[in-house]
Amino acid sequence: MTIRFDNRVAIVTGAGNGLGRAHALLLASRGAKVVVNDPGGAVDGKGGGHAAADKVVDEIKAAGGQAVANYDSVAEAATAANILKTAVDAFGTVDIVVNNAGVLRDKTFHNMTTEDFEFVVKVHFLGTAYVTHAAWPILRAKAYGRIVVTSSNSGIYGTFGQSNYGGAKLAVVGFMNALRLEGQKYNIMMNALAPIAATRMTESLMTPEALAKLRPEFVSPMVAYLCSEQCQRTGDIWSAGAGTFARIEYREAEGLRIDGRAPTIEDVADNVEKIADVSASRVFRTSGEEVAAVVSGS
Ligand code: NAI
Question: 33 and 91 in contact (C-beta within 8 Å)?
């Protein structure tokens, strides 16, 4: 089976560099018409220009693919909507949205300004919501859609100095968890990627040996699969990097059950290790499943 994207239109945000570029090149090489979105600028989101997006569009066209550039920021609702307009004007519709755009403004929380906090949340979380919101009516009307949000092990597991970034990166997972349910009956599949790759964003954080193994192209097959018709999974988090692919899942401990009387603080204090022990654990797919289990004590 060869996975193809003929007659599919894909938007890849932040596709001028790193992972987004690799995703765009792979999708285009398999027949997708790609909107290469990127306003340019540095890792911290400062500056801008057309060169990053234009270069990737040129690469796609040189390889025989179809692509159009868009230079709008995902971080404002109006400019994000314009990314969709580019897709519709150039290719008539949209089928695939890869929310990949990202910035870093790392500092310990103590030293972080609220402006740096807000900016990072805006690009990663609100940017994902704005672009997806603009695409949603089209996907819903055509009863087809594949959406990827880009999370991070920083949000899932924690990285020192990334309270803004980590918070925003887990926010997109919460966002996906709701849209997975809302999109299911419209054949809109939505998944989260937790990539690990050597890009300008990570080059200062990793050793040269790690960087050599972490080619962005090694992540993109996961994204392309999640964007394919063949993908029938929705609402999962997928780690991908250096040729390793693995699903990440939350689990909830069996915990402690107090029945027939009101629980006390001491019940919690005396049993905190049991409450924390996930050696026997459960996995819930919706908040309703968890509430039902808690209420029934099962
Ligand atoms: P990168 O810096 O090479 O690429 C990010 C791209 O997003 C840049 O081209 C940038 O111009 C663009 N961008 C920034 N602000 C934008 C905005 N407002 N609107 C549209 N585009 C904008 O970094 P990399 O590593 O390729 O990151 C891609 C995504 O993967 C990001 O969301 C990042 O947080 C995420 N990620 C990367 C990891 C890694 O190991 N490289 C690890 C975990 C997550």
Answer: yes
